[in-house]
Design a protein that fits this description.
Blueprint lengths: L4 H26 L3 H19 L7 H27 L9 H8 L9 H23 L5 H24 L14 H37 L10 H12 L8 E9 L1 H8 L1 H18 L4 E7 L2 E6 L4 H22 L7 E9 L6 H17 L5 E5 L1
Parallel strand pairs: 4-5
Antiparallel strand pairs: 1-3, 1-4, 2-3
Helix pairs in contact: 1-2, 1-7, 2-3, 3-5, 5-6, 6-7, 9-10, 10-11
Length: about 375
């Protein structure tokens, strides 16, 4: 099968239509709205490519101007989808591109008309594609592939526009003549496949990451659950040594049942969420926080001093106690009891540390609650 313009355009229509349908099917599974923008973009490619065939039958407005305008619209939809996906807003200045394209209608038909049309079209498409690529973050695995595909696609169109400026370059938009057009048609077929696959892979990677986060997080507080803590703790414990000791804080709420009984479980849940927020704000980088279940929490600290760990525990206790008094009125105040384990052995296991923390927490409870007890080792 010869790769003549008609064959390449037919392949483009088929691939764009299939990509549009495929992305809609993906949207039904993951409900990521960016997929709808991208699907609409590929549908626009299919319509524009079909219209471009009309130029061979003497309809230049539909076959050239309108078809190429839809190509610009396609990449505008791609940009909107990327903006939606990355949650990064777009400047309204991008709407001026539509005005630039519309101004081409005012140009008189002349020998240089094809060059101006292809130059403006190529640079608009290139700018939209490059901007889409720049919105994607290169340090995120799920976005990296799509970023490079769109960047390569955009640079191709910018170079294509620059080539038009070369004197003597053969070009005839009405008959698909010229090496630039032939190369562009081939690139279009390849780009559709790569962009569609990259878009799908990007969304799927985010979904897998989201599922993984849900599996490892507590649904109420958003902190790690016990399973995630067991998975993450070994890497942090390896950093502990004589010069950089570690600490574990086992935290339990005092009189929490009174809060649930008097004010309802929603109020009690609010206290748990408030405590988790305090923990997030107070914890250093080398730390893990998890909800073990019920009203029991744990903080694991690496590369810290004993005094810093104890200050952190006392600060959490004081801040939470003040917050709980303001929120709920109970016969006995809702406070924190903390069992602290200070250690400098990298071979310490999380299970052993939790056992020692439980003993220290028991001492804090037996000593009148609302306090911190330390287990040294």
């Amino acid at each position: 099968m010869a790769l003549d313009p008609i064959t390449l355009l037919t392949l483009t229509i088929a691939l764009a239509t299939a990509s549009a349908c495929y992305l809609v099917a993906e949207w039904h599974s993951v409900r990521e709205r960016s997929l709808l923008f991208w699907s609409a973009g590929f549908a626009t490619v299919s319509i524009g490519t079909t219209l471009s065939l009309l130029r061979l039958h003497g309809y230049p407005v539909l076959g050239i101007w309108f078809a190429n305008g839809l190509l610009v619209c396609t990449h505008g939809l791609f940009l909107l989808g990327v903006s939606r996906f990355t949650q990064r807003p777009l400047s309204l200045a991008w709407l001026l591109l539509a005005a630039v394209w519309g101004a081409l209608l005012l140009l008189p038909e002349a020998s240089w008309w094809s060059r101006i049309m292809l130059l403006v079209n190529s640079w608009l498409v290139g700018l939209l594609s490059v901007q889409s690529a720049l919105l994607l973050r290169r340090n995120r695995v799920g976005e990296r592939q799509l970023r490079w595909v769109l960047l390569g696609h955009g640079l191709f169109y910018l170079a294509k526009g620059a080539t038009v400026l070369t004197p003597g370059t053969p070009l005839d938009l009405t008959a698909f003549h010229g090496q630039i057009i032939q190369i562009s048609l081939v690139e279009g077929v390849i780009a559709i496949m790569l962009i569609a696959l990259s878009m799908t892979g990007t969304v799927r990677y985010r979904r897998e990451q989201h599922i993984e986060r849900l599996a490892g997080s507590d649904p109420l507080t958003g902190l790690y659950n016990r399973r995630a803590l067991l998975a993450q703790a070994p890497a942090l414990l390896e950093q502990v040594n004589q010069d950089r000791p570690g600490a574990l804080l086992l935290i339990d709420l005092d009189n929490f049942k009174q809060a649930n009984d008097l004010h309802g479980h929603a109020a009690g849940d609010g206290l748990l969420v408030a405590l988790s927020d305090l923990m997030r704000m107070a914890l250093p980088k080398q730390a893990l926080a998890a909800r073990l279940g019920g009203d029991e929490f744990v903080v694991l600290l690496g590369a810290t001093s004993n005094s810093e760990a104890l200050r952190l525990g006392e600060r959490l206790r004081e801040q939470f106690n003040a917050l709980a008094v303001r929120r709920l009125n109970t016969p006995e105040p809702v406070t924190l009891s903390i069992g602290a384990v200070l250690f400098n052995d990298a071979q310490a296991s999380l299970a052993t540390l939790l056992e020692r923390g439980d003993l220290a927490l028991y001492e804090a409870k037996r000593g009148g609650r609302d306090g911190l007890r330390v287990s040294l080792g």
